[in-house]
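Quick one, tokens below. Sequence please?
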């Protein structure tokens, strides 16, 4: 329970990796603000269960983070609700898959707004109070696609490379302030975001979801297993610990060897 008394905001935590990170932070003792879309009743039930399981305060804010105002409002309300914001996990993200010449402009704008600009706005809004308090942890959820490219993911790959760059800039600006900034770069994690891609591939290739899952892993990762949201959560908790106090500005791969090749 290394994070007792710390206050965390995890964007996009009603699903997938964000939920895994929120659970891991709560298990480590942090109060957590959840964010993301979902059925309000269901989200509230999970919020209550999480608070009860680990004896921490868990809030929920459904802010849409595709605008600067949306992100600023979320950070402000979290700081007001908890009194401070010590851990910011910029995780919310979306995907769109199409060749560049067919890539809808509106989808480019949406992916860049959420996957890249929201990370900038989150850091921009959270940094002043973290700096003032002399302690903070920012974990940006980038991707293996922050380090290498794949076809048909131009907006996602551009955004994630941008997140890795922005993480490095923030780390330099915050060196010696007590605030560290790192980027987590997962390979395949079986979440709704990836399940949708697998289903689309199965439909296009006339194969089964099980066959496409194996093919997807084998195409990119020497190690043929999905990373779990829980494992990403444990990595985030480690980055918040004293053991990681000199780790900053790092893109940290957790990708089954994807980017080792
Ligand atoms: P997911 O679809 O399961 O979850 C996305 C979350 O973001 C949900 O809570 C959703 O409600 C929220 N969200 C979507 N649009 C939003 C908006 N406009 N405002 C606020 N919240 C919004 O996806 P995931 O796989 O858990 O992805 C989480 C992050 O991890 C993303 O940044 C993604 O790029 C990254 N990532 C995922 C994988 C993977 O294999 N799944 C790999 C590398 C990186």
């Amino acid at each position: 329970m290394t994070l007792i008394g710390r206050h965390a905001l995890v964007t996009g935590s009603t699903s997938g990796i964000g939920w895994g990170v929120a659970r891991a932070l709560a298990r480590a003792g942090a109060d957590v603000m959840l964010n993301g879309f979902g059925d309000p009743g269901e989200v509230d039930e999970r919020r209550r269960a999480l608070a009860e399981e680990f004896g921490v305060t868990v809030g929920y804010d459904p802010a849409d983070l595709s605008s600067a105002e949306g992100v600023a409002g979320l950070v402000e309300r979290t700081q007001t609700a908890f009194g401070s914001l010590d851990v910011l996990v910029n995780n919310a993200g979306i995907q769109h898959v199409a060749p560049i010449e067919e890539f809808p402009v509106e989808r480019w704008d949406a992916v860049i707004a959420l996957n890249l600009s929201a990370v900038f706005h989150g850091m921009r809004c959270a940094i002043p109070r973290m700096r003032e308090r002399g302690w903070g942890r920012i974990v940006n959820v980038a991707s293996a696609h922050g380090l290498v490219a794949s076809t048909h993911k131009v907006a996602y790959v551009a955004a994630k490379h941008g997140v890795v760059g922005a993480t490095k800039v923030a780390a330099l600006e915050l060196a010696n302030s007590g605030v560290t900034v790192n980027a987590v770069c997962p390979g395949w994690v079986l979440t709704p975001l990836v399940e949708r891609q697998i289903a689309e591939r199965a439909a296009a290739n006339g194969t089964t979801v099980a066959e496409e899952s194996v093919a997807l892993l084998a195409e990119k990762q020497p190690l043929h297993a999905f990373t779990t949201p829980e494992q990403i959560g444990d990595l985030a908790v480690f980055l918040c610990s004293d053991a990681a106090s000199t780790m900053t500005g790092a893109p940290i791969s957790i990708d089954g060897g994807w980017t080792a090749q």
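The helical segments are 16-27, 40-54, 68-82, 105-133, 154-174, 192-205, 209-220, 229-240. The mean pLDDT is 97.
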